[in-house]
Amino acid sequence: MPGIAIIGSQWGDEGKGKIIDYLAKNSDLVVRAQGGNNAGHTVVVGDQKYALHLVPSGILNPDAINVIGNGVVIDPQVLLKELSGFEERGVNTSSLKISDKAHIIMPYHKIIDALMEESRGKEDIGTTKKGIGPCYMDKVERIGIRMADLVDEKMFAEKLNFALSRKNDIITKMYGKEALSYEDMYKEYIEYGRKLKKYVTATEFVVNKAIADNKKVLFEGAQGAMLDTDFGTYPYVTSSHPTVGGFLVGAGVNARAIDEVIGITKAYTTRVGKGPFVTEEDNATGDLIRQKGKEFGTTTGRPRRCGWLDLVVIKYTAMLNGYTSIALMLLDVLEGFEELKICVAYSLDGKEITELPSTREELERAIPVYKTVKGFTQEEITEAKTYESLPKEAKEYVQIIEEYVGVPVNIISVGPRRDQTILRKDFF
Ligand code: GDP
Ligand code: IMO
Ligand code: MG
Fold it and tell me: Where is 157: in which H helix or E strand?
């Protein structure tokens, strides 16, 4: 059975964690293929809330194998803490497998992330300061330390020695800060390596075997397509590819491995960090959405910037990823607004356009062209169990999305819990 990919269709935090958890209940294998602990996926099971950063959300299904693929960057300190947090809550983590090719986030990556941001001044990106960008830089520069190195004491000593001497040059000569100690870092990290060794393997074989055996494989996206290094709002992007191509490389599978692509789409738009955001409502409307949607970051606690749904963005990311379904999330948050606005085009320098412009400058000049629709004010939709039982205006909102993007909205989420999910199609 070919896999299902879960992709954030906006700027992250669309509610991927909830849908991944929902589908992971029936999955045989769940794989993360890109990003690191910049991700924060919230899953609510009964009265229990889990915040996942690195461990795939399938960990809550005792029967699923969970894979952290080669495309992920791993902070071992964070991973071990997350694993012990699960064990304390009675969640078995023995099904985890970590790619031997995944790169390790080292202390100097986090320090350089913060120093780089500081040096940008008001041009900062607003990164999560988790060392994601600098770690991917080392991977591409070919001086990264991989999981296979971390679990091999001799290899780790060699690689760390080489990398740290260069990083200390940057930290001391460029930024005038104190050099980091090789000895302390070696001792601390080799201990992490010892603890993680049992999970480490060449995961591409595990994932491909599951596919060959016709198992149900779920690709868990982190971030969102608009944060993709190539296609997002560069330079206000992350350093990985949260698009379907990134999943193939990041898990080591071929293009036939995925045949269902679900674009996880918030019923409005949010973004954390800086960068252009055409439909932003930096006003009382945005404040109301933030308050109703509890829009504060899972990873950094930062208030998220809020605005109306932008279909120019969704149509663009649908094209890039080939969504076969859209999951419309947090629809309940829009309940109570008299009117709702949906962006259907941009006005750029007096011209109306529906193709997303490429540059930051154009995006900053773009003015949203809205279709205004009646809100759903009276009914309580958080208990709706079927599409038919949704208020008329909510159904119209769904139809506008389907018609504009040309993709069916097969999942509608009306609350954070598992049972607040309306399914219009069976997936696994
Ligand atoms: P992710 O990064 O895409 O996994 O999303 P986050 O977990 O960072 O943010 C989504 C938030 O919305 C979480 O707090 C979820 O529990 C919550 N959530 C998910 N779906 C719904 C929904 O349909 N309605 C409401 N009110 N909250 C939801
Ligand atoms: P999930 O998986 C929302 C944003 C950061 C910043 C930019 C670059 O929870 O949807 P980075 O630390 O990656 O170099 O920061 O990307 N960002 C996210 N925003 N959700 C995420 O993940 C994000 N991961 C990174 O805020 O703007
Ligand atoms: Mg998140």
Answer: helix 153-169
Contact 172, 112 (CB under 8 A): no
Assign 310 to helix, strand or coil: strand
Which one of 13, 21, 310, 332 is the catalytic residue?
13
Give the position, in ligand 1's atom list, of the atom nearest the Cα of 264: 3
Identify whether 224 is part of a domain. yes
Q: From ligand 1's centre to the CA of 56, what distance in Å? A: 16
Q: Name the maximum alpha-carbon separation found in the chain.
A: 66
Residue-wise DSSP of 210-277: HHHTT--EEEE--S-GGG-TTTSSTTSS-SS--SHHHHHHHHT--GGGEEEEEEEEESSEEE-SSS--
The ligand whose atoms approach the alpha carbon of 381 most closely is 1
Whether 232 and 281 map to the same domain: the answer is no
278 belongs to a structural domain: yes
Task: Pick the ligand that lies closest to the CA of residue 18.
Answer: 1
Give 173 Cα–ligand 2 centroid separation in angstroms. Answer: 29
Task: Please name the residues in contact with 262: beta carbons below 8 A apart, sequence gap of 6 or more.
Answer: 4, 5, 6, 7, 19, 323, 324, 325, 326, 327, 410, 411, 427
Q: Is residue 428 part of a domain?
A: no
Are residues 268 and 253 part of one domain?
no
Q: Answer for the pair 330, 289: CB distance below 8 angstroms, yes or no.
A: no
pLDDT digits (tens, 9 = 90+) for 357-380: 999 999 999 999 999 999 998 778
Q: Point out the catalytic residue in the list 21, 28, 41, 100.
A: 41
Q: Is the CB of 416 under 6 A from ligand 1?
A: yes
**How far apart are the CA of 9 and the centre of ligand 2, in A?**
13
Q: Are 88 and 144 in contact (CB under 8 A)?
A: no
Q: pTM for this structure?
A: 0.97
Ligand index nearest the alpha carbon of residue 296: 1
pLDDT tens, position by position, 147-206: 999 999 999 999 999 999 999 999 999 999 999 999 999 999 999 999 999 999 999 999
Same domain, 403 and 372: yes
CA distance 169 to 312: 45
d(CA 370, CA 166): 51
CA triple 357-358-359, angle to 5 deg = 105
Q: How far is the CA of 37 from the centre of ligand 3 (A)?
A: 10
Both 355 and 233 in one domain: the answer is no
Q: Is 34 in the pocket of ligand 2 (CB under 6 A)?
A: no
CATH number at residue 76: 3.40.440.10
State yes or no: is 13 an active-site residue. yes
